[in-house]
Protein 1
Amino acid sequence: MPIRLVLADDHPIVLDGLENLFRLESDFRVVARCVNGEECLEAVRRFQPDVLVLDIRMPGKDGLAVLRELRREQQPTQVVLLAAALEEDEVLEALRLGVRGMVLKELAPKMVVQCVRKVHAGEQWLEKQAVGRALDTLLRREAGEREAATILTPREIEMVGMVARGLRNKEMSDRLAISEGTVKIHLHNIYRKLKVENRVELILYAQSKRLV
């Protein structure tokens, strides 16, 4: 039986190229092509393809949002991500969501075909440079978290993350169900332990340790 594909990309030229590429191969059948995330989800639900070739950046629901929805629905379709470039956090989330194939659009068309065949066979095909950078980031983030855990309490680490995301004292007190006065006491203790003077220095610390 042919490998049944759904193709999703918001650029018609790319979609045409992908469809023509796979139609030249006797072991593939394109069952649907989509230009946005919602169409993609509908096509996967309707056709239950073997493999979804998914552009990571699309209008509306992007590729990662589609992946999260497919994971929530426990869809069995394997996914190959297609991208002009891959950011480290995108790679990490895609791996956590079960993606087994990642291909850069700059690669030769035959590489896309090989990737889809590998993924359909239960193997992995990952863009080595992007994945390598992402795993390096993950290791440094985990090292930063371990270091912070030897200095700060879990509540203090949580508050560092909130400060780094731009939350003010009132927002932090609401989320943590504590008074603003207690927030200020926690922040004072955090500053003292980390030897920083203010929020800006705290944010720089969090970024240097990959806590955000």
Note: The first strand starts at residue 3 and ends at 8.
Protein 2
Amino acid sequence: MSMGVIIGYIFEILNGLTYKKMKKVLVVEDHPIVSAATCQVITQYVPDVECTEVSTFWRALELVGLEEYDLVVMDLGVPGGNTIEMITRLRSIRPGIRILIFTGLDESLFALPFVKAGANGFVSKKVPESELRRAIDTVLFRNKIYVSDEVHDLTLSSYFKPHRKEGSGLETLSEREMEILRLFYARKGVSEIASILNLSTSTINTHRIRIFRKMDVENMIDLVLKYELLTGQRKE
């Protein structure tokens, strides 16, 4: 075999290695400054990366269907999104795609439901840049699930709670509790719900406390937001 042929094989191998190292990341974020900053962090941290920015979930679905991305870094509040179904829709197109949620929502409330739905990680926009890099490294290069230390500790503590129930919260609600939750979501007050269901206000308040506990929230705003994300419903 001539030296020229050997050198040719070496170049082919090196080109193949370079191609394998190239990463493609899709950033789904509707705030241009945040989107650009996220891509900047990624391009500075990940060698040989192509970072694409889109501002809607619909466009993200189109691109994921056309190209193979190694990682999707996604905000939840983009147009067309704001629901846990974002994960299943992406996975229906690319089952093996890695998804990192990067959002301003409270991670103590929403990280576990989205990870259970199939996200590879959940990181808050409130964290320093070093934590975002850590999340990217965990999901993209180590192929592991990323949650913050705080969420990890919450997971362990909830696991060892007595009478622990599996699920996002909705699965643990009784039919009556689901009925009351839907009425709360429809902007009905305690007295109005009591009248509709022919129950006392104290009974409705007791159910409200149980719903808060099972949904792992502390106020009505978080309850409504979590209900929307888990069911895909949006109030106008």
Note: Confidence is low (pLDDT under 50) at residues 5-19, 159-166.
Protein 3
Amino acid sequence: TEHMRMEKALRDGEARLRKAKEELETLVEQRTAALRRLSAQVLNLQDYERRRIARELHDSLGQYLTALKINTDMLRRTPGNSELWAQSGELMERCVSEVRTLSYLLHPPMMDAVGLASAARWYVEGFGQRSGIKVTLQVPHELARMPDEVELALFRAIQEALTNVHRHSGASSADVLILRDAEQVILEVRDNGRGIAKEQVAHLAQTGVAMGVGLTGMRERVRELGGSLHLESNGSGTVLRIAIPV
């Protein structure tokens, strides 16, 4: 009868609503858990960065300054020693170079002056020299300036992606591509390494949280700007693709 059909339709509607409610609650729980993990990871990342900078200062600049102090003390006792003067001059040049490199890695000054393209070229060139990995960069010759937060997010993404290539992929080469149209800017970082486990890629796609702190932070930074991050990987390499509206 009509009454029975209406009751059945009502029950079916209630069942669909319950299912939708359960799915929504599950999604909210997953996102909440992801945010909690991210908060903890951000704190860990801050500590990691502080330790890394302290280690770099101690292992490189600290050693040069110690040697420079020893040479200076010896020069006070034996004036006119040209060899020690030459060594001291070389150590001072190394100190200046180390400080400049650390400063640029934290925030390249050319980013403020001339934008992402120059900063990316500088970083890619230096990364290739330090790591021994062959890296190519393709960027429009006249890449227009973008909001500071977009340029910084893309630069940090290049840093993090290439650092992961160096540490984990075993790759011999990598390609960095920057494209821009009227609506968005796209960054792609591709390598020929061993790839990332399918479980990790699936975990990132499902929860928005990666196994590594850096990739999770990268995704959240991009998401805050209204963009997206996509990761593809297999046994012949990994492709990271970021798109941010401009």
Note: The mean pLDDT is 82.
